[in-house]
Write a structure and sequence with these properties.
The protein is α/β, with parallel strands linked by helices. 55% of the residues lie in helices and 16% in strands. The strands form two sheets. Strands 6-5-7-4-8-9-10-11 form an eight-stranded mixed β-sheet, sandwiched between helices. Strand 9, helix 14 and strand 10 form a beta-alpha-beta unit. Helix 6 packs antiparallel against helix 7 and helix 13 crosses helix 14. It starts with a strand and ends with a helix. The structure holds guanosine-5'-diphosphate and magnesium ion. Guanosine-5'-diphosphate (GDP) binds next to helix 9.
């Protein structure tokens, strides 16, 4: 038996996301409509059906338990991390300037015991002349020790760090990320004493954190490009089609599927490329046909799917997209979100949220050639840990495309830093 449940949110994606959060992706979307509240605001209502057992399961709120245990795990992790940081700090102090201080401290304690001994002896012998000298020496040592302690927060290093922090922020990296990275080296600042050294560390951290998806041609693939209108989906599909069928170690068998029946000229645009390259192509307007065609294309190495751009309130396009991706084609569809490098950070976040109801597998960055400023894109990637697939670096089909490369991206960012 199936149960129908309705979810309401400000836009269809969020409403659908609620359903997925509750029941997982294995649900059927039965309707989505816009509703007008009494105050005139627009809401979206999405209805899904789920098997009764699944409904009961969710009712019995296993979810609460699991989110609780996730919290505990996070807490433990945080505590462990804090402990590790403390240990590092400790090691570091012992290992470096701390060692000098430690030595002085040992010296000082020797003098203390010497003074004590002397005092005893003096009391016994009634000798007082040397005592003043010793006390003076001890005081001097104390002053030196104090100076050394203050020396630990090396002003030069701190200002190099501050300068870099401001520069990175000006280049649109988020303060959250900058500070979390600078914090990691807080106790090793003597190693990163110049701006250049600090930048090296920042680069290393970016490199560690960025993920690149390797271009694995060993398996047959269905790749779908999604993203806002005009971002370069169709152009990228044409470049990819050419790459796979003509520009690699061997010719792969490619088919093009166009789901964009909205944009004027979209059908002709893809047909144009497909005809030049003599590649199998088809335009599709129903989920049923989508299923039939994808099954027909089973023998192809790569099926590339072009889609229509979508904004948060495109309810119709949203329902259609959901219908398409829920079609059982017997294989997984690799969903690539196309993001333009020219877009500002807040917009990247919005676009990602807008499309996140589709399980985004990777990011294709377009319009790499149109900006020198990669801070916003990097900030986005460092926040979301999404794998990069390709970079589109110009309008020229098929050549302006490269397999995503961390070093290339970081080098572009550095070029921007050098300009100050
Ligand atoms: N400069 C530059 N232009 C691009 C790039 N990719 C696409 N374009 C241009 O952007 C415009 C829209 O591209 P299109 O593929 O139709 O976008 P779609 O709406 O996402 O399919 C076209 O004029 C393309 O030539 C790129 O990497 N660099
Ligand atoms: Mg297009």
């Amino acid at each position: 038996m199936m149960i129908t449940e309705t979810f309401v949110a400000s836009d269809p994606k969020s409403a659908y996301a609620q359903a997925v959060e509750k029941y997982g992706t294995d649900i059927e979307l039965t309707s989505a409509k816009q509703i007008k509240e009494a105050d005139g605001s627009l809401l979206c209502e999405v209805s899904v059906t789920v098997p009764k057992e699944r409904f009961m399961e969710a009712m019995n709120s296993g979810q609460l338990m699991s989110s609780d245990s996730i919290l505990k795990e996070q807490d433990t992790q945080e505590v462990t991390q804090a402990l590790q940081a403390l240990e590092r700090e400790h090691d570091n102090r012992d290992g470096h300037k701390g060692a000098t201080i430690l030595k002085k401290l040992v010296d000082e304690s020797n003098i203390n015991s010497y003074v004590e001994n002397q005092n005893e002896e003096d009391a016994e012998n009634g000798v007082e002349e040397d005592e003043e000298d010793l006390l003076a020496e001890l005081n001097e040592l104390k002053t030196q020790l104090q100076e050394l302690r203050e020396g630990l927060s090396d002003e030069d290093v701190t200002s190099a760090k501050q300068e870099l922090r401001e520069l990175l922020f000006a280049k649109n990296l988020t303060l959250d990320w900058i500070d979390s990275v600078l914090e990691e080296i807080e106790n090793k600042l003597h190693i990163y004493d110049t701006k250049e050294k600090l930048i090296e560390y920042i680069q290393k951290r970016m490199k560690d954190q960025l993920i690149v998806k390797s271009e694995d041609m060993s398996k047959k693939k269905i790749v779908m490009l999604v993203g806002p209108t005009g971002v370069g989906k169709t152009t990228s599909i044409a470049k990819l089609a050419a790459r796979y069928s003509y520009l690699m170690d061997k010719p792969y068998k490619v088919a093009l599927v166009n789901l964009d029946t909205y944009k004027v000229g979209a059908i002709e645009q893809l047909e144009h490329y497909a005809n030049i390259m003599q590649i199998e192509h088809v335009t599709i307007s129903s989920a049923k046909l989508f299923e039939t065609k994808l099954r027909e294309f089973e023998a192809y190495d790569i099926v590339l799917i072009d889609t229509a751009g979508m904004s948060p309130f495109d309810t119709q396009k949203f329902i259609k997209t959901i219908e398409y991706i829920n079609v059982d084609v017997g294989r997984e569809i690799d969903i690539n979100l196309v993001l333009s490098a020219t877009v500002k950070y807040e917009d990247l976040i919005d676009i990602y949220n807008n499309f996140s109801f589709l399980n985004i597998n990777s990011i294709l960055v377009s319009k790499f050639d149109e900006t020198k400023h990669f801070g916003p894109l990097l900030s986005f990637l460092l926040l979301h840990d999404l794998p990069l697939s390709y970079f589109s670096i110009g309008q020229d089909v098929p050549y302006d495309l490269m397999v995503a490369d961390k070093n290339y991206l970081i080098a572009q960012f550095n070029g921007d830093l050098d300009e100050g």
